[in-house]
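Changelog-linked ticket: pyridoxal-5'-phosphate example.
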Amino acid sequence: MTVRAGREFLAIPGPTTMPDEVLQAMHRPALDIYSSQMVELTESLLADLSKLFATKGKSYIYIANGHGAWEATLSNVLSRGDKLLVLESGRFAIGWGQAAAAMGAEVEVLKGDWRRAVRADEVEARLRQDKDHTIKAIVAVQVDTASGAYNDIEAIGKAIKSTGHPALFMVDTVASLGCMPFEMDKWGVDVAMSGSQKGLMTPPGLGFVAANGRAWEVHKKANLRTPYWDWTEREGSEHYRKYAGTAPVHLLFALRKAIDMLQTEGLENAFERHRLLAEAVRRAVAVWSEGQVLGFNIAEANERSNTVTTVTMNGHDPAALQRYCKEKCGVVLGTGIGELSGQAFRIAHMGHVNAPMILGTLGVVEVGLTALGIPHGRGGTEAAIEYLGENVGA
Ligand SMILES: *Cc1c(COP(=O)(O)O)cnc(C)c1O
């Protein structure tokens, strides 16, 4: 017997649930890619992406996932042999660095930890040692989707600035843009990147990059540039060049609708919705943890992301729980990856999420814990309900 039917719910950190409006926005014929509607669509999206990144700098849209957008950032500002400093807080900045190494950069990892966020003072100390300015760029993620860490980009930006070191600061916002505040210009970020399929509620397939004037100056001399990623190639009046070829028309329809929805809700409201739902998840996990099996991967409460929660499992197989939730109840939980492979599961709460989706997911996890006899503190979902009841307001 199962209690699953109808739509499977994806509680995974991407691709996330797409709103029906976004799906429907794609159900129409393609545009003439040389038409004025096409040009207007592109221009409106590039302007709105720069607003989402909170930058006066330029934005670029690539037909690519996040890995592609990583490569876009690297190829536009690095030259062969340049040194890149990777700020570790889990899996994703490391992956960005691996791409850079494969492309011919020299990569140094500022050792971090899977259980905590990047420490701004450690970044500062490393940069102060680099008196000859051999480090050309620094990469960090705002949210590490594997560990669940939230990095304080503002604090890291300040630490970099305090040293006077000229390295470019590049930030991955794939698992945070549209969900948690991000202020590219105010926080001293030179290059930011993101993707369509997480907080932005759009099908996978679009990668976004924003660059400021400092990044553009470095770009002019960078020798890892290749035609598809090259910002310069995408400038000029010819619309066709904005995508280095045919525009991904339907994905752009979807993105337009998703950003319209975010603007209707109000970005601040979307951030607050994420904060409330994330805290509801954390209340549940805190109660479950009393059973000594489940726990938060990220030790410090203020370093936990509002978009994904990584839950460790001590002495029990997370795969069995995931299988139960999916096959019996139609909820797909995220898998533990990297160092947490086989030791954790993840609950995503990013993008098009609401109270029934999150409370339903928590309820299903509790059903699974009960069915499989996994020890856990009782009343996790109840604690989430109480939290929302006390904080959403009448
Ligand atoms: C998902 C993710 C990526 C990779 O994106 P893909 O679209 O899967 O290539 C990169 N960085 C972060 C923080 C992510 O969450």
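Closing comment: Example verified and attached. The pocket of pyridoxal-5'-phosphate is lined by residues 13-14, 65-67, 92, 141, 143, 145, 172, 174-175, 195 (CB under 6 Å). Residues 10 and 332 are 5 Å apart (CA to CA).
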